[in-house]
Specification:
- By secondary structure, the protein is mainly alpha-helical.
- It has 4 domains: 87 residues, lambda repressor-like DNA-binding domains (434 Repressor (Amino-terminal Domain)); 122 residues, no CATH class; 92 residues, no CATH class; 74 residues, no CATH class.
- 73% of the residues lie in helices and 1% in strands.
- It has a two-stranded antiparallel ribbon with strand order 1-2.
- A hairpin with a 2-residue loop joins strand 1 and strand 2.
- Helix 1 runs antiparallel to helix 5 and helix 13 runs parallel beside helix 15.
- The longest helix is centred in the middle third of the chain and has 24 residues.
Length: 419
């Protein structure tokens, strides 16, 4: 679902447009979709027309299932209902992004319960392995595309089901497969917890990841877990421990018949280590890590590997982040100006590029460009941008640096809850 189109449009209009777009994306006529969900074509036609009368929850739930949206249409319906109620009361309706942020926070208690019960699952259904792999792949995609509201709605049930699959596995091979999937689902959960500032939950998830990964012989999975574990040290500002853990993980990357696996593991860890060294003020060390990441990326197609995006474009984004962390704003601007992350990259990573570039542009006096970068970040990943502390800090500086604050900047700051 394209978040760019949701901002500034009435949710009822957006809901109708999304139903039509999603139907066309999968190549169905209104009649074909109606047959799939058990309604007549007239119901689908009315749902695709925006107006005062919203479709019923039952119809929208059927459309969610029929179009495999993971509940996105239901979320838009609830937003549209809130808008209508607010307009009747004469109030300004909440932006869609605010509703989604509220949905994420409302869903965290269920996520906590699921994480606590993973190792003692209740009795219940377990889908075949291919369906579980697809569920984990979808959760990973939701995290990478910063669709946190959708992720928090679906992840608790998936975690519990993976716990059941692991607990009831018929042999060690099946248990290992279920455990690996559980680790990747934990990765998705941590992405959400960390981005929304639930550091205690993030630390709990990472501990569970490490314990689960230690149960299976998947060396490159250990490297992926080490990449994520850095967040614990960043939260406690223990940069020395963060760097040591990454270097140790690099030392334990095994020889492999697949050079791609080794390059991805080495390069991902090197990217992460470069940012840690830069935050610690160690410019030469950071430069060495970035160089190692570029070497590893030479023969790696840009892609997502065990939940982490890696490739030449990802390294360049980290290079801008490193310069920004070092306070070398001219270099960050020089490396970022005139280049945009390819659209094939996950939204979360692309938005990071603009979020890191904006304060550097601000430092060198390019205030308009800094604001433009924040707007690009929002267009790519609204939920990620709205919650990012660097965005809030940059906005505060922009507000202070303007003699006359434009309506556009004022509206953006209000959206990000910055005054």
């Amino acid at each position: 679902m394209n978040d760019e189109r949701s901002e500034g449009r009435p949710a009822a209009v957006h809901l109708a447009g999304e139903i039509r777009r999603l139907r066309l994306d999968v190549g169905l006529s209104q009649s074909e979709l109606a047959r799939r969900i058990g309604y007549t074509r007239n119901y689908v036609s009315m749902a695709e027309r925006s107006g005062r009368n919203l479709p019923s929850r039952e119809l929208v739930d059927a459309l969610d299932r029929g179009l495999a949206t993971g509940g996105q249409l239901r979320l838009l319906l609830e937003t549209a209902r809130q808008e209508q109620m607010a307009l009747r009361r004469g109030n300004r309706p909440q932006p869609v992004s605010q509703v989604r942020d509220d949905a994420v926070r409302a869903g965290v208690p269920a996520l906590r319960r699921a994480l606590a019960a993973c190792d003692v699952p209740d009795d219940g259904p377990v889908r075949p392995g291919h369906a579980l792999r697809l569920g984990v792949a979808q959760a990973t995609e939701q995290r990478l595309q910063a669709r946190y509201a959708q992720l928090v709605a679906e992840l608790p049930d998936l975690l519990v089901e993976l716990g059941r699959a692991r607990h009831s596995a018929a042999d060690e091979r099946k248990r290992g497969e279920a455990t690996e999937l559980l680790v990747l689902a934990y990765r998705a959960a941590d992405g959400l917890a960390f981005k929304y500032g639930y550091m205690d939950l993030s630390a709990q998830i990472i501990t569970a990841m490490r314990l689960a990964a230690s149960e299976v012989d998947r060396p490159f999975l250990d490297a992926a877990v080490a990449y994520v574990r850095t967040e614990v040290f960043l939260a406690t500002k223990d940069l020395g421990a963060a760097h040591r853990s990454l270097v140790d993980a690099v030392d334990h990357i095994p020889g492999s018949k697949s050079k791609l696996d080794s390059d991805v593991a080495l390069g991902s860890l090197a990217m992460r280590a470069a940012v840690v060294s830069a935050r610690d003020g160690k410019a030469e060390e950071a430069a060495d890590h970035i160089a190692a990441a570029y070497r590893a990326a030479e023969a790696v197609p840009e892609g997502v590997y065990l939940g982490t995006a890696f490739g030449p474009a990802s390294v360049r984004i980290h290079e801008v982040a490193v310069a920004q962390e070092l306070g070398d704003s001219p270099t960050a601007v020089q490396r970022g100006t005139g280049w945009h992350p390819p659209r094939e990259l996950p939204a979360e990573r692309r938005s990071h590029f603009y979020i890191d570039l904006a304060p550097a542009q601000l430092d060198v006096g390019r205030l308009d460009e800094a604001f433009a970068s924040l707007q690009l970040a929002k267009s790519v990943a609204p939920q990620h941008t709205r919650e990012h502390p660097r965005v809030k800090a940059t906005l505060k500086s922009l507000l202070r640096g303007q003699r006359t604050v434009s309506d556009e900047l004022s509206t953006f700051a209000a959206w990000a809850d910055v005054s």
